[in-house]
Amino acid sequence: MLRMKYCHISALVLCMFFLSLILSIQARHHSHRKQRHSHSHKSSRTFDVTKFGAIGDGITDDTESFKMAWDTACESESEFNVIIVPKGFSFLIRPTIFTGPCHGYLVLKVDGTIMPPDGPDSWPKNNTKRLWLVFYRINGMSLEGGGLIDGRGDKWWELPCKPHRGPNGTTAPGPCDSPMAINFFMGSNLTVQELRVRDSPQIHLRFDACRSVHIESIHIKAPRLSPNTDGIHIENSTDVKIYNTVISNGDDCVSIGTGCYDVDIKNITCGPGHGISIGSLGKYNSRACVSNIKVRDSVIQMTDNGVRIKTWQGGSGYVSGITFSNIHMYNVRNPMIIDQFYCLKEGEVCRNKTSAVVVSDILYRNIKGTYDIRSPPMRFACSDSVPCTNLTLSDIELLPDQGDMVVDPFCWNAYGDLRTQTIPPVFCLLDGFPQSILHNDLAHCTRYS
């Protein structure tokens, strides 16, 4: 009987031990969940540049305050960090590199105005004149807001070395560096949205060696005669999306350089300017590779060119898998153009050469509107030694903007076919596939070349 009593007591003690163990585990688990829940509330932080000393009067140099705000946000352990550039202020920023990688995702929210020093004479002597705002090695960032990036480019455009700015309408010799406004180098998971950028001394927005880029609902504006003021330039970049954007400037609305793959451009309003361009490619006998580019559902108006591919003589590589579709043209001088004789200088560099960047598999579909009769509505000028191949035209209707004189399309060494009748009719494309193209080394032109 006594033995049974001790057994019951032992069992009771054992049950109490396991019960306390379970409660302890639950308590620790509950405490851990509370800590995680508390951490989630602290996962987002904001950093107002004025709290770091920025004045925002358009005269005081606020560069160091911006750098302090950036470095603090970049080093923050929070998952989501927002740098506020408040509305109602104008911040003067010197040429600056904002570096990463950062611990969390970073948002630079520009609701006010950011501007550089006013012209070449005000530019810091020890700083490069080719760059202004640089974002380097950032993995996960959004540049956004309802504010303005004002490049203050007018004094740069008036330099004597700029096109047609020298004495008697000529260009003066000498260095002519001018800063690009916003530059992303070697970044990924990047977004630029709902922002206004205007009057850059040179390119407004540039992406080089970047991947997973999303540009949405931005407005870029510069005067029609402002030199080299490309809206968006991308180079050596993959998985780029440019949507719902308005660009008017003095150069290409969008320019696509070598090393670009998987680019989708949709719902762009372009003009005035030089249109949407792939290139120039192959300059100084270089190798260039571009593929899988789509330009669609867009409007191009009052521009020198519509959709253009431009390459230099002597280059090598490949432009392929290009689609231009559902594009409306209004008074465009060269609506559809391939120019494999692209050249900006007279003399040796512009002579015909035996090598060229191969242009193949180009689809033009549902392109309609009006053109300036000073140039043909379609111009396919391909290399003497390396023809263009697999050009496909479908549902093309281009009429003169003024008068009723229809200019015939122009083709030179261009091979392709018509899926539908075109307006104006195209009789100059060559049938089949040229034997000479088979001897070109195309296999090595991949996204890893």
Question: What's a quick, concise take on this entry?
Answer:
The protein has helices at 2-41, 63-75, 154-157, and strands at 44-48, 57-61, 80-85, 90-92, 96-99, 105-110, 113-115, 131-136, 139-144, 148-150, 180-185, 188-193, 196-198, 205-208, 211-216, 219-221, 232-235, 238-248, 254-256, 260-270, 276-281, 287-301, 305-311, 316-332, 334-339, 358-371, 378-381, 388-400, 410-412, 414-418.
Strands, helices and their partners?
Layout lengths: L1 H40 L2 E5 L8 E5 L1 H13 L4 E6 L4 E3 L3 E4 L5 E6 L2 E3 L15 E6 L2 E6 L3 E3 L3 H4 L22 E6 L2 E6 L2 E3 L6 E4 L2 E6 L2 E3 L10 E4 L2 E11 L5 E3 L3 E11 L5 E6 L5 E15 L3 E7 L4 E17 L1 E6 L18 E14 L6 E4 L6 E13 L9 E3 L1 E5 L31
Parallel strand pairs: 1-3, 2-4, 3-6, 4-7, 5-8, 6-9, 7-10, 8-11, 9-12, 10-13, 11-14, 12-15, 13-16, 14-17, 15-18, 16-18, 17-19, 18-20, 19-21, 20-22, 21-23, 22-24, 23-25, 24-26, 25-27, 26-28, 27-29, 28-30
